[in-house]
TrEMBL record:
Keywords: Cyclin. SUPFAM superfamilies: Cyclin-like (SSF47954). Signal peptide: none annotated. It comes from Microctonus hyperodae (Parasitoid wasp). One of its GO terms (biological process) is regulation of transcription by RNA polymerase II. This is Cyclin-Q. Belongs to the cyclin family. Cyclin-like FAM58 subfamily. One of its GO terms (molecular function) is cyclin-dependent protein serine/threonine kinase regulator activity. The keyword rRNA processing does not apply. It holds the Pfam family Cyclin_N. It comes from the Eukaryota. Residues 52-150 form the Cyclin-like domain.
Amino acid sequence: MNPSEPVATETLSSKMKDVIDVLAMQREKRNSLQKSVTIDYTNVNDTFTVARFIFECGFKLDAHPLTIATAATLYHRFIREATPQGYDVYLIASTCLYLAGKIKDDVLKIRDVMNVAENTLHRGSQPLELGEQYWAIRDAMVQAELLIMRMLKFQVVSTHPHKYLLHYLRSLQAWFGEDEWSKYPVAKTSLALLQDFHHSPAVLDYPPNFIAIACINLALQIYGVVVPLMDECDQLPWFNVYCKELTREKLWEIMEKIMMAYDQEPETRDSC
């Protein structure tokens, strides 16, 4: 092992400590404000806010978390291929949610998606009647679905970090032991971090297994939890047991990207 590596790791850890503390406070603040904060989507259309729109609509439709994650991924991929200024981003977002339901076999009726999207954009609006506006929006969504499919070259099925995350968490639970594992909400926090990371297009930049490990490691850092028995592994990082090719530097890079996503939250931006 390079003699300088432990020093480099210690430097990274000390550098990130304050940021991790801030992240924990941001998540606590977000949880307390989540029910009271209402975004006026008609006045803002940045990437984070549109992704949040997808999540809000998905929750209202009782969509599966993987369906919502798929929709967010589709949207980020589309925006990378297109010029956002040339499209109605909320129409594209709604269509991504509808398309994701088909991909994940989590059927979301187009009329339900339309009504939820309209009510989320225009708070307090009534369900769409079967009239000119209804058919215009429906036709626009059908055309948008074809556009998204063409822009993504019909490659709309992807591997999500979720399956890796659940596998690693189950393994770590056995590694820690039931009593020790139950002391900290590592699993719940890891899943929440993964969900929140889908608000950022950076979720497209890394392999899904890398992202899963980064979410777990960030949760461990937040609660100051150390994976047991690592002293007996010749300082082999715990994550290399699951993924040999993941380096410490790449892991911290992904963790920083996850934390940067929180800087884009409206309440975070307003408080800066």
